[in-house]
Amino acid sequence: MTQAHPIRLLLIDDHPLVRDGLRARFDASPNLQVVGEAGNAQEALTRAKTASPDLALMDISMRGTNGIELTAQFREQFPHIAVLILSMHDNAEYVRQAVRAGARGYVLKDAPAHEIVTAIERVARGDSYYSAAIAARVVQASTSHAPIDSLTPREREILSRIARGLANKQIATEMDLSVRTVETHRLNIKRKLGIEGQAELIKFAVENRL
Asked: CA 103, CA 89: separation in Å to the nearest integer?
């Protein structure tokens, strides 16, 4: 049964051929409409503002800001846009980090076209969807972990610099990032750790030997 309004999709993958293949698949479905494409994080954030998608179909492996980090940025800046990870990686760490960053689903790239469409439809209406091949990893991702385990490698790098007393601008220069990206990471670190103040953040870093 066709929906009254097609689901508006933003395709985020740094390989144009992959995006072309996805668009060809989705053009065959009356329930889906590709409203934008992006090959990196900056393009994705810009398209998200201008194209107003319902769902972002996100790859993990991208140059620069990866898909997990970008998912966290979407969660902060565009909480109304659902994120579905479409990746070739099926290891538990990627699944766990994607879920913690805010992804509502995780599907493998080699999944049949009809499964990817089903995943999009379910995630767009507020449900979650995970490929059967990684269902066990989702269970693992949903179990309790120490607070430090919730941080991505990039967030740990930034936290270690915060512990050294570096300001956002200094961290941005040292890591070759924008100040805004560092600010976003800092907010995500505080949210994940349940920390508000700078002193508490430094104390946590020291106690965890960062």
From this structure: 15
Residue with tokens 């319902």: 54
Higher-confidence residue of 3 and 42: namely: 42
Q: Model-level pTM greater than 0.70?
A: no
The rounded distance, in Å, linking the Cα atoms of 44 and 69 is 12
Return all residues near 197 (Cβ < 8 A) that are at least 6 apart: none
Coil/strand/helix, residue 4: coil
Closest CA to 29 of 115, 126, 129: 115
Question: What are the chain's domains?
Answer: 7-143 (3.40.50.2300), 147-208 (1.10.10.10)
Gap between the Cα atoms of 114 and 13, Å rounded? 20
Nearest-CA neighbor of 59 among 77, 75, 41? 41
pLDDT tens readout for residues 119-132? 999 999 998 888 87
* Distance separating alpha carbons of residues 200 and 142, to the nearest angstrom: 26
